[in-house]
Amino acid sequence: MDHRIPIIIVVLFSIMILIGVSSNSQAQPQKNVVVIYLDEAIDAGSSAMITSTLSSLSNSTTAAVVIDMNTPGGELEDMIQMVSAITSVEARGIITITYVPQNAMAASAGSYVAMATDYIFMANGTYIGPSTPIVVGGTSLEEQHVKSAMEQYMVSLAAEHGRNTTAAYSMVSNNTAYNDTTAYNIHIINGIYGSLTGALASLSLSSYPRIAVYPSAYDNFLSFLSNAYVDGIFILLGFVAIMLDIYHGSVILTVIGITLLILGFLGLQLISASLVGVLLLILGSVLIILEAKMGHGFALLSGVVVGLIGTFLLASPYYSSNPGYSPSPFTTFDVLTSILIVIVAGFLAFYIRRIVRAFKYRGKWTGAESLIGKFGYAVGNIDDKGWVSVDGIEWQARSSTTSSIPAGSKVKIVGREGLILVVEKVEEEQVKIK
Asked: Which of 91, 109, 169, 194 has fewest C-beta within 10 Å?
């Protein structure tokens, strides 16, 4: 018997094993870890980013998904959509992880999203919670109804993932926040790691390739329009721009105004805006437009004030699809900005009043020469030609004599030639124009 036959059989068998391993390696490529960076408020934009990303994942290519979280919270409706997407991806056998990097937070609505994941890891100097919901403009009964619902929602998420339900309940009922050490000691989180790599290593996932997901331009656009205060201001500014264009005749202002209105009303749809807030905003806008008819400035100022009140009531009410916010959608900065807007509106109302007065005189120009006999001031030196200010409106003018009229001189209108006023110097009074 040939002694080489057993050797040949062993070699062929080894080759077959290697081919099988190679084939199996090609059929089952190494999986990835998808890292979604949630470094913004929870709103329509961030919700679209997370839900669209999670819906596209398969357990054949994805071992785990990480939400790298630093959020102050936001809308409860969008938070619930995120939690639903997380639950769906877990059901497909994909591990879900929340990682809160150093000096970041999983606050308010973000704490519910974190609680929905399989693992929560935090770095030093971070915290999770508080989680009490806010119903803007809601009654005490409505506030309590939403609070009770969110208490049970948080507890169910904690229980599903084996966490401390009593501590989770306190996050909502007592508006409690826990730092990284406390959260770990009371079994709210699964570990404290200074880096995402360390957190993944604890689950034997650090060697997996990572795919980073950031908000797209569209996601950022939705996030921008999901701010109730921004939407209200856009609508008010849109109507103010259109009203001003009635006086100035600038097509650009009208285009800007219409654009702002479209963006503002699109935002109202995104946040399921309160009907009361919308009605007050429209009432304020009508008053602003009426300023073009009245011309005394009070309608403009009143419209801005009413519109701002409506803006603070735009946030979704109890009966809308959005149960509320966590934390409040309005900040101290928004209040201070509103005060500044009212002050600016006061100056603008005064400016409108002066323009209307000037237009009344200008409107008579095509009839009797009503400007003749009026007084004004030389804006600059008037030789053959120059400029004078009459009732706050500047007109081209020339001297009625060959003598030059110095800037700042009081002049009297003695005639006109087309659109050019003929003026003469009033000798007894000189006024310096600042």
From this structure: 91
CATH code 3.40.50.2300 for 31-220: no
CB neighbours of residue 338 within 10 Å: 21
User: Do you know the residue count of the chain?
Assistant: 434
pLDDT of 29 over the 50 cut? yes
Count of Cβ atoms closer than 10 Å to residue 251 Cβ: 9
Amino acid at 284: G
Side chain identity at residue 187, one-letter code: H
The structure tokens listed for 73 are 């919270």
Is 60 exceeded by the pLDDT of residue 91? yes
One DSSP character per residue, 28-63 reads SPPPEEEEEEE-S-BSHHHHHHHHHHHHT--TTTEE
Contact between 89 and 82 (Cβ < 8 Å): no
Q: Strand 325-326 and strand 393-399: pairing?
A: unpaired
Statement: residue 293 has pLDDT above 80: no
Query: Which residues, at least 6 apart from 197, have a Cβ–Cβ distance to it below 8 Å?
Result: 206
**Tens digit of pLDDT for each residue in 139-183?**
788 889 999 999 999 999 999 999 999 999 999 999 999 999 999
E strands, 154-269, are 178-179, 191-192, 210-213
CA gap 94, 47 in Å, rounded: 19
Structure tokens at 12: 């062929």
pLDDT tens digits for 111-137? Answer: 999 999 999 999 999 999 999 998 887
Whether residue 415 contacts residue 424, with contact meaning beta carbons closer than 8 Å, is answered with no
Q: What is the fold, at CATH topology level, of the domain defined by 375-430?
A: OB fold (Dihydrolipoamide Acetyltransferase, E2P) (2.40.50)
CA atoms within 13 A on the CB side of 306: 18
What's the N-to-C CA distance of the chain in angstroms? 120
Q: Which two tokens stand for residue 136?
A: 């803007």
Q: Give the predicted TM-score (pTM) of the model.
A: 0.72
Confidence class of residue 36 from pLDDT cuts 50, 70 and 90? very high
